[in-house]
Amino acid sequence: MNFWETITGSDLTREWKAFEVRARALPADHQAAWEQIQNHLYAYSNFTGRNLTPILDSALGLLEQTSADGQSVHEVLGDDIPGFCAALAGGEGARTYRDRWREQLNRNVARKLGRLGG
Predict the structure, then answer these.
(1) Cα–Cα nearest to 97, from 51, 65, 59, 53
(2) Once rounded to an integer, what is the mean pLDDT over residues 21-32?
(3) Which residues contact 58 (CB under 8 A, 6 or more apart)?
(4) What is the distance between the alpha carbons of residues 21 and 5, in angstroms, rounded to a whole number?
(5) Cα-flanking dihedrals φ and ψ of residue 76, to 5°?
(6) Could you give phi then psi for residue 75, rounded to 5 degrees?
(7) What are phi and psi of 42, to 5 degrees?
(8) Which positions ≥6 away from 80 have C-beta within 8 Å?
(9) Which of 35, 106, 111, 116 is the most exposed place for a label (fewest CB within 10 A)?
(10) Which tens digits make up the pLDDT trace of 31-47?
(11) Contact assessment for residue 53 and residue 12, using Cβ atoms and an 8 Å cutoff
(12) Which of 81, 86, 79 shows the shortest CA–CA distance to 43?
């Protein structure tokens, strides 16, 4: 990845398109699980989403492997896809973008109040 790809995000676009092609080859139930995994993992993204690329690649690989082995999504992921995604992102209590924004807002408010009160 070169500087220009990093700035424009063209590398991410290429990877996401590759994910889409791979996901379209999955059976319908695995495709539905893939959509849910993506939706639940977005909350753990950083500003660009680059931190999710290896996680999503591994999750898609798991779905591809289980599909090839003839296993159902339920056998592999169970009923708790949000829990599965939380575990992939670092376990329960992993910081989401909302947590980071909330902390930043709290720091900014405290700083502003400190200036006004002092």
Answers:
(1) 51
(2) 95
(3) 88
(4) 21
(5) -90, -50
(6) -65, -35
(7) -55, -30
(8) none
(9) 116
(10) 999 999 999 888 888 76
(11) yes
(12) 86
What residue type is assigned to position 111 of the chain? Answer: R
Length of the chain, in residues: 118
Instruction: Determine the Cα–Cα distance for residues 31 and 22; give it in Å rounded to an integer.
Output: 10
Determine the 3-state secondary structure of 19 from DSSP.
Answer: helix
Pick from 8-12, 17-21, 47-51, 98-102: least confident: 98-102
pLDDT at 67 over 60: yes
56/58 Cα distance (integer angstroms) = 5
Q: What is the CATH number of domain 3-117?
A: 1.10.1900.10
Paired tokens of 103: 């902390």
* Tokens of residue 87, six digits: 């575990």
Packing angle, helices 10-24 and 53-68, rounded to 10: 20
Computed on alpha carbons and rounded to an integer, the radius of gyration of the chain in Å comes to 18
Half-sphere exposure of 109 (CA within 13 A, CB side): 6
